[in-house]
Design a protein that fits this description.
By secondary structure, this protein is mostly beta strands. It has one helix and nine strands, in the order αβββββββββ. β1 and β2 form a beta hairpin. The N and C termini lie far apart (40 Å).
Length: 162
């Protein structure tokens, strides 16, 4: 085996061991940082429905994932079995139990005209930091999540993993 491959494999193994050790290291006594409000969001949620402020309703497919103050979403607004609009977004977030504030760092979207939604050209944004903030109301009932955006639109999800 070539020496650089052995070094790379050894480095990867060492890094994996270090990460595993950090992840299992217990929190100091009295440290409540692991009991944050955002734990209620942690995991993956399957997109179900996009309800516009106008009342128009559209089925949605995709996932939103929350982990350690970071979020990523990929979703498609459907017309029957055909996706008409799509968006991939991500960044950082904070959550106080009622308001989820998205910081938008990455965004890729495009869309065709649908009821209540005009056509949207391909848009790509990649920021290194200090993205726009979007305070969003959150309703969590069991495994159901509803995000109520400042626009008046809402998107519903169901938990698929923690």
């Amino acid at each position: 085996m070539h020496a650089s491959v052995v070094t790379l494999v050894g480095s990867a193994t060492c890094l994996a061991g270090l990460v595993a050790g950090i992840a299992t290291f217990p929190a100091p006594p009295g440290d409540t940082t692991l009991l944050r409000q955002d734990d209620a969001l942690a995991g993956a949620w399957a997109a179900r429905e996009y309800v516009l402020a106008t009342g128009a309703r559209h089925p949605v497919r995709g996932r939103i994932i929350f982990t350690d103050g970071e979020w990523q979403v990929l979703f498609f607004v459907m017309d029957g079995e055909e996706p008409k609009r799509g968006s991939g977004e991500g960044g950082r977030y904070t959550f106080d139990g009622e308001t989820l504030t998205f910081e938008h760092l990455h965004h890729l979207s495009v869309g065709r005209t649908m009821e209540g939604l005009p056509a949207s050209p391909l848009t790509m944004t990649a920021r290194a930091g200090d993205g726009p903030l979007e305070p969003t109301r959150v309703d969590i009932e069991g495994d159901a999540l509803t995000l109520r955006f400042p626009s008046g639109n809402a998107m519903s999800f169901v938990r698929v993993s923690n």
